[in-house]
Request: fold
Amino acid sequence: MAEFDRLGAVVLGCSADRPETLARFREKHHLNFTLLSDPEFAVIDAYGARRMKRLMGKSFLGIVRSTCLISPEGTIAHRWESAPSKGHAAEVLEVLKEQVAANRRRKV
Reply:
């Protein structure tokens, strides 16, 4: 997280769970970033994270763990359609470093 902070990134998670549930989850897993509660799916749908999924031959609308890197201008700079919980932060960090370096080159 220190590296994300150093690069000026803000890390947020978003879930349809209620704030109380998210607080317990955050504490249980020792998360060091903010989890947003979106039970109305406003943000989740806006970022395309609720999609049709299949489980045991049945289709249902569910939330797909995904990641969006938002530029300082507020646009999506990079999207990961699938975001596994293990190792994904390092992958995001590498793309963030590339984006920050590219932005610095443009300003020079």
Observations:
- The chain has one domain: 2-101.
